[in-house]
Amino acid sequence: MDFTFSEEQEMFRAMFRDFSAKEVAPSAEEIDHEEKPPLEVLRKAANQGFLGATLPEDYFGAELDGVSYALLIETLAGDCLSTAVTLATHVSLVAMSILEHGTDAQKEQYLPLLASGEAIGAFALTEPDAGTDTTALQTRATPPTPPVGGGEEGGVVLDGVKTWVANGGIAGLFLVFAAAPGGITAFVIEKDTPGLTVGYREPTLGLRGVAINTLYLENCRVPAANRLGKEGEGGDIAQQALHRMGITLAAAGLGVAEAAIDAAAQFASERVQFGVPVAKKQAIQNYLADSLIEVEALRYLVYHGAWLVDQESDLTFDAAVVKAFAARVARSVTNRMLQVMGGYGYMEDYPMARKYRDARALGIIGGPTELQRVAVAQRIMASKDVEIVP
Amino acid sequence: MDFTFAPEHVALRRLVREFAENEVAPLAMEIDREGRVPFETLRKMAKIGLLGVCFPQKYGGMGAGETGYCILMEELGRVCTSTATNVGAHIGIGAMSVYLDGTEEQKQKYLMPLARGEKLAAFVLTEADAGSDAAAIRTCAVQDGNEWVLNGTKTFNTNGSFADIVTVMAVTDPTLGARGGMTAFIVEAGTPGFKVGTHENKMGIRGSSTAELIFEDVRVPHENVLGKVGEGFISFMKTLDVGRLTLGAACLGGAQAALEASVHWAKTRKQFGVALAHKQSVQWMIANMATEIEALRSLVYRVAWMVDTGQPFTQLAAMCKLYGSEVASRAIDVALQIHGGLGYTRDFPIERNFRDARISEIFEGTNEIQRIVIASNIFRQHGVRIRP
Question: Looking at the partner chain, which of A272, A274, A343 has a beta carbon nearest the beta carbon of B388?
Fold first, then answer.
């Protein structure tokens, strides 16, 4: 075991901090208040190679290792969780799925577009009646007659409604999951494909910079070349993507919790009540201490999970553990840190209220905590020969 | 012991429930989005006597006592925390301070129109450097003949921007501090030098107004001293005790609404082939929530009974506020989780409730201050005097 960062990781971290302080922090409030996706930040992130963070250099990616990527997301999330989740959706859910499951032709066609930011990736899995239960998809992928794509075999027609499509409103490329005759199947669909329409933007409590939209697929013809993986492999592709995303979101939760502690500690050092800075009060010390204890526990769960991504092991269990814990820590820490700031924490002129609203999303997006608990219970009970279903 | 409500309170709840459902609930989303105070609702409440629910009839009130007031706050809190906040600031601390400490003349002149809802009140205490440490205020009042001259800036004043009558605390003898050095005054809007400053942009209760109030050489006649000169701090703390209890009642309503919404959604929403109600994780959430709500309900109405029967209640009122705000926050957090992504959007009331509920752990004395009140009461009984 070795708990130190490599020189390269240290260097990256310094670079991420510099970028985030200069480019992300100043726009965070505006992104939230005006519900504006961070397009300007994404352009600058693209110049740094962040939009292809974990893609190989062959596809113009930055080829970051898992831990460095976690450090990137953690850092961005400290300043703006919306920006971190937008980037994480693009990289962890979309780009990495194409890298892992795409044909050479698909990788050559799409990954450079994603790495350069020419196209932002969106992930379309959830449906009105398939939220936690992503196996209950109603969106259909049916073979047309005659076959689409100029006689090419295997094309399909997609029909259905996808909700909570992260990055939906800003995407050039959609990773869509639909029920085909052979089971759930993944498709990479370009934005200007006829039959694909981006609709309603969700007015969210937090993460107001993330364009979460409804996606309508009406007689949307998709050639076989756009199918990702084999027919019926979509369920596994989605699960693997969600596991990667779970670890990435946990890194984001770590970032927002750390930043909240830093801001509240600063406030506690300056705010004088009863003749002393409130930091001198034991109740405030306890809020800070309990928060930091949780953050330190989360930190090593996150880096461990991020390291596991590079070991190409099955992430089902570890991703569930770290995501569930991160959601809890991000919530409890932002809640306590808001309390440290009292009335000022409740005002939108300070970033704490935004962090509190943002952090709450982590208990829901990427699969709710309840589902992660099921995954953890499955692991425990599998060793006792008991099969657990959600 | 008798745990049933009196017939007049049962009737009051019926009236208030109907009013809340028909007049308050339909506006809740709109006033949050537009960040506006629902004056039309307040006017309607005034018309049916609700803005003076707890005050004696001889002062223009309904005479339903503290229990009646808690019923009102519970039912308002169940549908709209902003409206409950406007009403609580008016009745529970604004008008209440005049009721508790006013002279007969002051009650006739000021409480009467407030209880009838012809005028609206605010309670003005907090300053930029005096939040939890309310005794650190710097707004001062200097006597000049038969008048007092007020100078200072007050922050976070609920209803302050539109109130017709405010009760404000100022330092009248800097050498004496909280015990003896502070005095409460009744100030009318429109008094020269009394101005509204900046408005706060809050995360929640956006249908209530929170503003800065500026006092520049504001001249107040001596007859507007509320209570005795030098006893303002004690008098304001007494008023806050009542406010805390009824804030607990509003939280009870908020938590109850979260439970009702959760049960409804758990019945309706199917995942994995069954309604969520059949999942034990959800059942536990509902069971815990309902248990806490019942404990809170008993606490709130027991303390209301104590107030109505003249028993000391300071420590228990602090518990109502502390426990009530935490129960409401937990219940709404769980309700949001049960609703999943939909609970996270502004299309469902849970989202607003989540933002609204969080203030109750902060205002009218942070929960940390409530714990100090409770602990100092307990330790005092054991001969230990603790300081915040």
Answer: A274
Per DSSP, what are the bridge partners of residue A159?
A140
The verdict on ipTM greater than 0.85 is yes
- B154 and B142 in a single domain? The answer is yes
Domain A7-116 coded CATH 2.60.40.1920: no
Which CATH code for domain A236-382?
1.20.140.10
pTM value? 0.94
How many residues in total does chain A contain? 390
Instruction: List the domain range (segments joined by +) for residue B320.
Output: 239-381
Could A348 and B201 be called an inter-chain contact, meaning their C-beta atoms sit closer than 8 Å? yes
C-beta of residue B296 within 8 angstroms of C-beta of residue B329: no
Give B387's contacts in chain A (Cβ within 8 Å).
274
- Nearest-Cα distance to chain B for A184, in Å, is 16
Q: Do residues A88 and A73 make contact, with C-beta atoms less than 8 angstroms apart?
A: yes
Least Cα separation, residue A376 to chain B (angstroms): 14
**What is the rounded CA–CA span in Å between residue B261 and residue B263?**
6
- Domain count of the fold of chain B: 3
**A205 touching B, CB under 8 A?**
yes
Backbone φ, ψ for residue A247 (5° rounding): -70, -40
* Cβ–Cβ contact A203 with B under 8 A: yes
Q: How far apart are CA A80 and CA A42, in angstroms?
A: 13
Residue of B nearest to A359 (CA): B344
Which residue from A356, A357, A364 is facing B340, i.e. has the nearest CB?
A: A364
- Of B180, B204, B233, the one marking the end of a domain is B233
How far apart CA A143 and CA A179 sit, in angstroms, is 12
Instruction: Say if residue B226 is in the same domain as residue B255.
Output: no
* Domain spans of chain A, in order of start: 7-116, 121-231, 236-382
**Quick check: is B322 in a domain?**
yes
Token pair listed for B244: 């805390």
A273-306 pLDDT per residue, tens: 999 999 999 999 999 999 999 999 999 999 999 9
Inter-chain Cβ pairs, chain A and chain B, closer than 8 A: 107
Q: Is B156 in contact with A343 (Cβ distance < 8 A)?
A: yes
The model's pLDDT over A336-387, given as tens digits with 9 standing for 90+, comes to 999 999 999 999 999 999 999 999 999 999 999 999 999 999 999 999 999 9
Fold of A121-231: Butyryl-CoA Dehydrogenase, subunit A; domain 2 (2.40.110)
Q: How far is A197 from chain B (nearest CA, A)?
A: 21
Instruction: Report the candidate in B101, B95, B87, B23 with the shortest Cα–Cα distance to residue B61.
Output: B95
Q: Is B66 a catalytic residue?
A: no
Tell whether A9 is within 8 A of chain B (Cβ). no
Same domain, B109 and B225: no
**Residue that terminates a domain, selected from B105, B120, B135:** B120
